[in-house]
Design a protein that fits this description.
Elements lengths: L1 E4 L2 E4 L2 E6 L2 H14 L5 E5 L6 H11 L14 E4 L5 E6 L14 H7 E6 L13 E7 L6 E6 L4 H11 L1
């Protein structure tokens, strides 16, 4: 991995970004939201408490939703139509079977919106290969996080901007 500046490291096509605080996680979500397009799937992975919901809320606000963004922990999905494309926010922590995702409208999310998916591993083979995968983990100091961005589905070129902006 070679440093590209300001806590951003490039591991071939993957990027590792050090996030010193919650504001940095929100800023990353803002940048990703500015690059998002119809049909994008953004898979948010990580242990409980690593910032998946913080990232999702900031992304949805940056994408044009000025209202409160509740966690869909119990509803499993919330849809936001404030931006140019609907954003579907899935929290699949409580999903019992991957096939149950069809009832949540996941096919519509993939076809006609942007899908933000917390706990995407619960989808198994239903998770599209064309996706941006963001793995959040705890950082080296309290409150810090680290994001590993693994691009797919057209995100490679978009993420190249991170290295040139740093």
């Amino acid at each position: 991995m070679r440093p590209t500046g300001r806590g951003i490291y490039n591991a071939q096509a993957m990027l590792v970004i050090d996030l010193p605080d919650e504001a940095a996680t929100e800023a990353l979500a803002d940048r990703i939201a500015a690059m998002a397009r119809l049909g994008d799937v953004i898979a948010l992975k990580g242990e409980l408490g690593t910032g998946k919901t913080t990232f999702a809320r900031a992304f949805i606000r940056a994408y044009g939703n000025p209202d409160e963004v509740p966690s869909p922990t119990f509803t499993l999905v919330q849809v936001y139509d404030a931006g140019p494309t609907a954003v579907w926010h899935f929290d699949l922590y409580r999903l019992r079977d991957a096939e149950d995702a069809w009832e949540l409208g996941i096919e519509d999310a993939f076809a006609s919106g942007i899908a933000l998916i917390e706990w995407p591993e619960r989808l198994g083979t239903l998770l599209p290969e064309r996706r941006l995968e963001i793995r959040l983990s705890y950082g080296d100091i309290p409150g810090a996080r680290r994001a590993l961005l693994d691009p797919g589905g057209g995100w490679e070129a978009r993420l190249a901007l991170f290295a040139t902006d740093a």
